[in-house]
Amino acid sequence: MIAIFDKALSTNKPHDLFTQEYQRIDKWYGFINPIAKQKPGFSDIERRYMDYTYLLVGHYMLKTNEL
User: Fold this and answer.
1) Which of 10-31 are b and which e, b meaning 16 or more Cβ less than 10 Å from the residue's Cβ?
2) Main-chain phi, psi angles of 27, to 5 degrees
3) Do 32 and 25 form a contact (C-beta atoms < 8 A)?
4) Which of 11, 28, 29, 58 has the smallest number of Cβ neighbours within 10 A?
């Protein structure tokens, strides 16, 4: 994780862009019940209104578990 954040800081890009690269080749773990959530609102990165509430409901979890 430190390497990912260092790479992001050195290139001045969002860390999740680099995290995605490592998720393809490494084993990553998550929580079935999210431990944090993002409040709906304007995203400076996306430059538009974003609402990730759909990630917290059963529809997403069912699709994930079906894989």
Assistant:
1) eeeeeeeebeeeeeeeeeeeee
2) -95, 125
3) no
4) 29
Q: Any idea how long the chain is?
A: 67
Tell me the C-alpha distance between 42 and 49, whole Å: 4
Integer Cα distance of 55 and 64 in angstroms: 10
> Cα(57)–Cα(46) distance, rounded to whole angstroms?
22
Q: What is the pTM of this model?
A: 0.42
Structural contact between residues 2 and 18, judged by C-beta atoms closer than 8 angstroms: no
Give the mean pLDDT of 9-31. 83
Domain locations in the chain as residue ranges: 1-30, 32-67
